[in-house]
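Researcher: I'd like a structural prediction for the single chain below. Treat it as a standalone chain; there are no partners to consider.
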Amino acid sequence: MSRRVVHGYYKRRYLPQDMVFAAAGNLDHATVVRQIKKALAGSGWLEGDARPSGPRPSGLIKPGKPGARLIKRDSEQVNVVLGVPSINQSDDRRYAMNVLNAVLGGGMSSRLFQEVREKRGLAYSVYSYNQSFADAGAFGVYAGCPPKRFDDVIEICRQQLDQIKANGVTQDELDRNKGQVRGGMVLSLEDSGSRMSRIGRAELVYGEIKSVDELLRRIDAVTVKDVADLAAQVLDAPLSIAAVGPFDSVDQLRRAVS
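Model: Treating it as a single chain, here is the predicted structure.
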């Protein structure tokens, strides 16, 4: 990759209308503004009053084609990810997604952790995650396990995905995991870096900064049906798989999710 390519990308993407400065801590707002203006003086970036691009509308999840990718490596551990398309970052169902992720693989009390690691001891690590971007997202399950346990781990992960897709979550799971999501949000307020990231992302992505109380209310409002409906849609897509480990062929991965 040449300097010209990198510089061209920078010039196209790093624009004033897409920039947000966020700060948290024992700071004076006027002082921060003066420092930013001084740092950018002469760059042309302070001309006009451009605002960050607004959020893109949410909608149906974009269908994707299932795939399989393998990096062969002679190692004592397999690192594998299963994934499906998910919601974008402006989708109002993101609060239900936080709860769904917590139930499925968001901690030591989650279904995946209990079934794969605690009950059977098949994996060193197993969890789920959701990544949302401007116009698309990805929901994934990661596991790290010995190669001889690979098939068992994939089978159980698929079983858990199928179960939550078909049956949703219980009221008890919903209540416990809403508490977990709420607790994590409140604890993050103790860290200035987390506060800074929260307000910066909110301004850049959503064009507004919701109060913590409002976010907690949105989490509280998530219902069993909200999570069940979201799981039924997101997890209905064919699984893609990617792995690093001592496999003979990518066909072994394809068979695992076929």
